[in-house]
Write a structure and sequence with these properties.
Blueprint: H1 10-28, H2 31-38, H3 42-45, H4 52-64, H5 82-95, H6 98-105, H7 112-129, H8 131-141, H9 145-172, H10 182-197, H11 211-226
Length: about 230
């Protein structure tokens, strides 16, 4: 039929929205930007989502796992930003950092090299496996007050604090090298992992580095830097 627009799945809408939100941020993204990316009319997108907030919700759900879109009634409606934060919270709680938590609670350690290496590998795997979600959340959280409080204040700084606590414990026991400032050292570990596991992909000069090379090298250099000489 003339003028008829092909039907798109909610996953198509969410995938396009995730890409646009990640590129432009929440404030600069409009419904029309996503509809243009999909080749749909502005009005057609409202048959899938009721608002820009709902569009971000489905984008985040798709980035976490497309199966989260199953069963959602369209048009997707949101009552507040709290629902976006709740979705992000469920994702982070499901992922977690169990090896870091277990190591911090452990009173005695047989091999701190193995223990510390597992903490580095756990963080690397989380960032490497969630690059798209992290990019979307980090970009949009800057412009949404409740998301900012959750992501940057509670979760991100909370992880730095947890990592700092582990470092202090093992430095006091003599297993790890003393450092000038523990919180800075914790951020050094996290940001080193984040650059090689995620941010390097945006650097055209680092295209020759493979995931396997980066993962192994980061593990080796961080464990070597923080462990006391035998």
């Amino acid at each position: 039929m003339a003028g008829r627009v092909a039907t798109r799945s909610l996953a198509d809408i969410a995938a396009a929205a995730a890409q646009v939100f990640t590129q432009r941020g929440y404030r600069e993204t409009g419904i029309s930007d996503v509809s243009k990316a999909l080749g749909l009319s502005h009005g057609a997108l409202y048959t899938y989502v009721q608002s820009k907030e709902a569009l971000l919700y489905v984008a985040l759900a798709w980035a976490i796992g497309p199966e989260l879109l199953d069963g959602l009634d369209t048009p997707v409606r949101l009552s507040s930003e709290d629902e976006i934060v709740a979705l992000a919270r469920r994702w982070t709680e499901a992922e977690g950092f169990p090896k870091l938590a277990a190591a911090t609670a452990r009173r005695q350690v047989r091999s701190v090299r193995e223990e510390f290496g597992e903490i580095v590998d756990e963080l690397y795997a989380f960032i490497e496996g969630n690059r798209d979600v992290l990019a979307l959340v980090a970009q949009c959280a800057r412009e949404l007050p409740e998301m900012f409080q959750f992501w940057f204040v509670q979760r991100r700084r909370g992880h730095f604090d947890a990592l700092s606590g582990y470092l202090r414990k093992r430095i006091r026991s003599g297993h790890l090298r003393d450092v000038p400032d523990v919180p800075t050292a914790a951020r050094f570990i996290a940001e080193t992992v984040a650059w090689f596991a995620w941010h390097r992909l945006g650097d055209p000069d680092s295209a020759m580095l493979t995931d396997d090379q980066c993962r192994a090298t980061v593990h080796h250099l961080l464990t070597s830097a923080f462990l006391e000489d035998s």
